Amino acid sequence: MKKLTAIALLSIALVSCKKETKTITKVDPQTGKTTTVEVSTDSIKSENSSVSAAPVMAINDSAGVFHQTFVLEKGKSYPLITIQKDVQTLTAPNGQSQSGTSETTDEMSFLVNGFDKGVYDITINLLGKKNTQSSGGKSVSIDTKAAEPKEEQFKMMWKVNKALVGNTLNMKMDSKGNVKSITGFEPIYGKISASVNALVKDAKDKEEFVKSFKASFNEKVLKEQFTKNLVLFPAKGVKVGESWSEHENATPDGKVKLTTTYVFKGVQNGVAEIAVSGGIPKKSDKQTQQQMTRTMSSELAQNGKILLDQSSGWIKNQTMHVKTSQTETLSDGKQTQTMKSVSNSTVTVNP
Questions:
Q1: Minimal CB count within 10 Å: which of 48, 137, 191, 350?
Q2: Is 335 helix (H, G, I), strand (E, B) or coil?
């Protein structure tokens, strides 16, 4: 009886120790050959568990096609600092040149308040504005983080910028970067209006100024700005090495188009890289009036790169170089005069 009990116990132990197995087919990524192996189902469960626990990437790969989404953390602020530096050189008909430099900095941040039903609730903090102009060895800075400038012609710009910063807007944006709404403009308009009271005496002039400000700072304008800066991948997704282009009007009549071409370079060390090129081909216009011929030609070339954080989808850095050249020639058949203008601009986002 004791012997039978021992055998029974041994059988139970063997059954409990035996692992369930499953036959799977593996493909060698180098040779393409397939092999059939038997593995423990526990190992499969463990592998599946580790995969499901992996963090969700905002820039994700599905069968070699990458898509951009946004995976933002509640309570975290994401920066959007834009710096544009322009160096313009004018060359007179006598060959003499004069250069001037202007630099503008806009600083804001996006605080994530929450995420509900696929939509982020975000507070946009307007943090600072700075304008610097240099020419002929002189430089003037209009900085909201510094004191009011002494020059009368710059006081109004400083007061308006000072009234703008320190305010907030509320934005609703889905995980694909579609901005649903931006609200909170009216209190800002009120502060802007009050800031020019002491400087603009004429009521009509003041009304026109506020109207002009509203036209450049409203929901539609900011939606377009944020979409252009934040959403870079096309909706269909892209493969590594694939390119796509966007076209926008460079003139009000739409006859001249600015073409921007993007190339997805890939993802490395958690950073997605996009190369940018394009511009406006050289255009010429010739008109003759009263025996005087005027010829205008211009062109624009741009190049740069954009880096995106793979985990959040947020822009990590962008550097764009834009060169604009314009030539104007006047001729009466006997004498010819030519004026040249060259502008070299560098736009940096999140330096």
A1: 137
A2: coil
